[in-house]
Amino acid sequence: MLIPMLLIFGVMYLLVIRPQSKKAKEHQKMLSELQKGDDVATTGGLIGRITGIKDDVVTLQVQEGVRLRVLRSAVTGRHKFSETPKSDDKAS
Asked: Which of 10, 13, 24, 44 has a CA that sits 20 to 30 A from residue 72's CA?
């Protein structure tokens, strides 16, 4: 009875707990490495450039003259803008 329970816990650890903790560590590392000028996306879907960082608050410039303050924990990751706009070349 003890061996199946240990096997179930081992499988759960390998498939669920370990990958989650690894992803959380990577996210914390990314948050600690944020710096002014980085383009980031937030959990709310906002995309902007970091113009200031203080403790746990990040100031994002989302448009010229529009700055928003968001929590550092709301940043989900870095975002890369495409330099050349894609155009739809549809034949008419």
From this structure: 13
Its domain, for residue 56, covers: 35-79
* Distance from C-alpha of 38 to C-alpha of 50, rounded to nearest angstrom: 6
- 45 and 9, same structural domain? no
| Residue 68 located in a structural domain | yes
Domain shared by 1 and 27, yes or no: yes
Domain tally for the chain?
Answer: 2
pTM of the full predicted structure?
A: 0.71
